[in-house]
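To: structure subgroup
Subject: Chain for Friday's discussion

All,

I'm putting the inputs and outputs inline so they're searchable in the archive.
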Amino acid sequence: MSPDPVPPGEGVSCDIPGCSEASHRSLATAEARKAFPTLGETRRTHLCKAHYKEWKKSTRKERELERLGR
């Protein structure tokens, strides 16, 4: 059995270049690239609270249209 993944905020830092805050949430890198196009080639991207809020603001309209069945 594989070990449990590390929950966000426990020993993982934000993946945005230049940020060293603790991770608050993790997203699929494809989703995170919509707001941060300079991310590396990983499956998941860990974001601190401030960068997660920035991602939410920059993708708000797109996520709303997705929910409505665009």
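Points worth raising on Friday:
The chain is about 30% helix and 10% strand.
The two ends are 40 Å apart (CA to CA).

D.
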